Amino acid sequence: MSGGGFNLQTHTAVTGLKRKKPSGESGFCWEVQTQRGVVKARRVVLATNGYTAAVWPRFQGVVVPLRGQVTAQRPGKAMPAGGCLPTTYSFIYERGYEYMVARPQGSRFAGDIVMGGGLVRAPDDGLMEFGTTDDSVVNEDISEYLRETTGRYFGPDWGEDHPEGRVRSEWTGIMGFSPDGLPFVGEVPGENGLWASCSFQGHGMVLCWMCAKALVDMMEGRDDEELGEWFPDVFRITEERLAKRFQGRLY
Ligand SMILES: Cc1cc2nc3c(=O)[nH]c(=O)nc-3n(C[C@H](O)[C@H](O)[C@H](O)COP(=O)(O)OP(=O)(O)OC[C@H]3O[C@@H](n4cnc5c(N)ncnc54)[C@H](O)[C@@H]3O)c2cc1C
Fold first, then answer.
1. Atom of ligand 1 nearest to the CA of 14
2. pLDDT digit string, tens, across residues 61-96
3. Measured in angstroms, how far is the CA atom of residue 218 from the centroid of ligand 1?
């Protein structure tokens, strides 16, 4: 897709990124290798979250992929039709957590209970889920655990399972975790023209929009007092933060 100077190449993996000496008047100094050819650019943004180290190896051990798992469950027969929970819930225990969201009234599959988490219920506290980027499969131990959570949390209010079965759907996705539990936003130190906004842990839906806005402000030379008023400095990429190695989830 292209237009107005904008060109979007979907389903096109970046297979390599190289810094070159700036060439000619264009000043292109980055070469992005893709499955469909090379893109030359003055500036490159890594918006690759948990996969960032695959594109720029300096993030290896700094932004670590972690596979998360979710189920969508048809409500049991004793549950009110069309949704019953006005808010979302988190169940936090010593080493882990689950979260629960009911599909709201008027939405597709209203009343379905979406349960995610359960990582530590897999063997070795879910160790095998760290460092994996394969979101085409689910972890059977976590599936089994998540499936049981609704009956347990709702108790008799759940009732018999829906005749079509409890689990409507389940899937995995890849998150990006950092040593200090914070995103990386800004120019990569020492790499003129290489920018990043990544590593949102399990909270990217609430963070990535404004991090993108902050990144654009920085790239466009608006890294000023106004940005400082709302954008947390601790999200900025620094040598010190890049030198730390991931030791485990902080939450
Ligand atoms: C199971 C699960 C539950 C979550 N729950 C919540 C929640 O409740 N609340 C919340 O706020 N957040 C939640 N998140 C986190 C949130 O989904 C992410 O933080 C958010 O999607 C990050 O957005 P992003 O665009 O930075 O990265 P992503 O959505 O991961 O996008 C990265 C993109 O980069 C592309 N990419 C990677 N490598 C390459 C390459 N080499 N070449 C080309 N493209 C590449 C990928 O295909 C992908 O499209 C959850 C995530 C998961 C997996």
1. 42
2. 999 999 999 999 999 999 987 777 889 999 998 888
3. 22
